[in-house]
Specification:
Blueprint lengths: L1 H15 L5 E2 L9 E4 L7 E3 L2 E4 L5 E9 L2 E9 L4 E8 L5 H4 L1 E6 L36 E9 L2 E6 L2 E7 L6 H6 L8 E7 L4 E10 L2
Antiparallel strand pairs: 1-13, 2-5, 3-4, 4-13, 5-12, 6-9, 6-13, 7-8, 7-12, 9-10, 10-11
Length: 210
Amino acid sequence: MRGLSVLLFCAAAAFAAEDGFTSLFDGKSLKGWKIVGQKGPGYVPQDGILVCPADGGGNLFSEKEYKNFVLRFEYKLSPGGNNGVGVRAPLSGDAAYSGMELQLLDDGHEKYKGKIKSEQHTGSIYDVIPARTGFQKPAGEWNEEEVTADGSRIKVKLNGVYIIDANLDSVQEAAVLKRHYGLKNQKGHVGFLGHGTLVEFRNIRIKELP
């Protein structure tokens, strides 16, 4: 186990050493995070991986608020897995509306076929702007994601491919803006929005932009 710990530490250090990036997860604790609406065990650190168990979840937010940033992480979904990335979210309310949620979903699973909208696929700004599909790896494999929030521009890169590049100012529908009032937030917390399915995360790091 000692060798594994050293290996995980070196990997975390390597990612943190990326130009301007800071690690958000130390691999062994929830230091720097705050859970809101915890379900069951919430989120559990296990051998360098942040686990949202099938009987856990809730919203796990960074203690710090961020305005403009690049967030990088890896995630692995279980079959039918469902989670989300909270962006510029407050600690109260439903983050998909009071802030912004970028979907993480095993959207090819049988239980979602014909039951989800285009703006509910992985990478989409939930219920607002759809992402390109077909670039997520199968459940059980690790995916690499990068989220850039720079003013009104939101970009999501999945496994090296940009699947969304959106200007929030293009959202003009009054009903959408009323429902998703958090689209106008200038800053807020980042985090993961668990929905009672097994999803794992690792190598979580962030770089603040001017």
